[in-house]
Amino acid sequence: MATIIHTEPLQIGGEVILLDIPEGYEGPAKVVRTDGTDEVLAAFPSVKEARAAAYFAVMLGLGGYGSNVVQPANPEDITHQRWEDWAF
After folding, report:
1. Which of 30, 33, 77, 79 could lock onto 39 through a cystine, CB 3.0 to 4.6 A?
2. pLDDT tens for each residue of 53-75
3. What tens digit of pLDDT does each residue of 78-88 get?
4. Residue 50 neighbours by CB under 8 Å, 6+ apart
5. Nearest residue to 36 (alpha-carbon basis) of 68, 9, 8, 14
6. Average pLDDT score over residue span 2-8
7. Is residue 15 a contact partner of residue 56, using CB atoms and an 8 Å limit?
8. Is the CB of residue 16 less than 8 Å from the CB of residue 63?
9. Beta-bridge partners for 25
10. Are 25 and 47 in contact (CB under 8 A)?
11. What pLDDT does 13 receive?
């Protein structure tokens, strides 16, 4: 079950970041849009990097992707090593 880990109160629509990671999981993770497209924005070698990317993605003035969820990913799906590499 996904848990809300962040809300953007300044945005109309109340964008959120969800965390759908099993307790104790330390493997690769991906950031997926929750707007109905299920677009994978990026995948990273760690949950920490994916969470950082998710925060960037939800911010209207920066990422602008809207609500998203951090989920486990397969190692072969990793697209970036660090969130900064994806964001900039």
Report:
1. 33
2. 999 998 766 777 889 999 999 99
3. 999 999 999 88
4. 29, 30, 31, 42, 43, 44, 70, 73, 83
5. 68
6. 78
7. no
8. no
9. none
10. yes
11. 62
- 22-52: per-residue pLDDT in tens? 999 999 999 999 988 999 999 999 999 999 9
Can you list the pairs that 75-80 forms with residues at least 24 positions away whose Cβ atoms lie under 8 Å?
75/27, 75/28, 75/45, 77/28, 77/30, 77/40, 77/43, 78/28, 78/43, 78/44, 78/45, 79/42, 79/43, 79/44, 80/42, 80/43, 80/44, 80/49, 80/53
Query: What's the per-residue H, E or C state across 49-72?
Result: HHHHHHHHHHCCCCCCCCCEEEEE
Token pair for 18? 């969800």
Residue 18 has a pLDDT of: 94
Burial class (CB in 10 A: 0-12, 13-18, 19+), 72: middle
Which pLDDT score is estimated for 70?
97
Beta bridge partners of 71: 30
